[in-house]
Amino acid sequence: MKLLKTLPLAAAVIVAPSLGFAQEAGAAAAETQFIFTTLLFLMGGFLVFWMAAGFAMLEAGLVRSKNVTMQLTKNIALFSIAAIMYWLIGYNIMYPGDGWIIQDVFGTISPKDIKTEIDAGGYSNASDFFFQLMFCATTASIVSGTLAERIKLWPFLLFVVVLTGIIYPIEASWQWGGGWLANMGFSDFAGSTLVHAAGGFAALAGAIVLGPRLGKYKDGRVNPMPGSNLALATLGTFILWLGWFGFNGGSQLAMGTLSDANAVAEIFANTNMAAAAGAVTALILTQVMYGKVDLTMVLNGALAGLVSITAEPLAPSLFDALWIGAVGGLIVVFTVPLLDKLKIDDVVGAIPVHLIAGVWGTLIVALHTQATLTDADGNPVLDAEGAEQTVGFFAQLITQAIGVISIGLFVFVVSFVVWYLMKLTVGIRVSEEAEINGLDTAELGMEAYPDFTKG
Amino acid sequence: MKLLKTLPLAAAVIVAPSLGFAQEAGAAAAETQFIFTTLLFLMGGFLVFWMAAGFAMLEAGLVRSKNVTMQLTKNIALFSIAAIMYWLIGYNIMYPGDGWIIQDVFGTISPKDIKTEIDAGGYSNASDFFFQLMFCATTASIVSGTLAERIKLWPFLLFVVVLTGIIYPIEASWQWGGGWLANMGFSDFAGSTLVHAAGGFAALAGAIVLGPRLGKYKDGRVNPMPGSNLALATLGTFILWLGWFGFNGGSQLAMGTLSDANAVAEIFANTNMAAAAGAVTALILTQVMYGKVDLTMVLNGALAGLVSITAEPLAPSLFDALWIGAVGGLIVVFTVPLLDKLKIDDVVGAIPVHLIAGVWGTLIVALHTQATLTDADGNPVLDAEGAEQTVGFFAQLITQAIGVISIGLFVFVVSFVVWYLMKLTVGIRVSEEAEINGLDTAELGMEAYPDFTKG
Amino acid sequence: MKLLKTLPLAAAVIVAPSLGFAQEAGAAAAETQFIFTTLLFLMGGFLVFWMAAGFAMLEAGLVRSKNVTMQLTKNIALFSIAAIMYWLIGYNIMYPGDGWIIQDVFGTISPKDIKTEIDAGGYSNASDFFFQLMFCATTASIVSGTLAERIKLWPFLLFVVVLTGIIYPIEASWQWGGGWLANMGFSDFAGSTLVHAAGGFAALAGAIVLGPRLGKYKDGRVNPMPGSNLALATLGTFILWLGWFGFNGGSQLAMGTLSDANAVAEIFANTNMAAAAGAVTALILTQVMYGKVDLTMVLNGALAGLVSITAEPLAPSLFDALWIGAVGGLIVVFTVPLLDKLKIDDVVGAIPVHLIAGVWGTLIVALHTQATLTDADGNPVLDAEGAEQTVGFFAQLITQAIGVISIGLFVFVVSFVVWYLMKLTVGIRVSEEAEINGLDTAELGMEAYPDFTKG
Question: Which domain holds residue B388?
Answer without folding.
Answer: 31-106+122-444
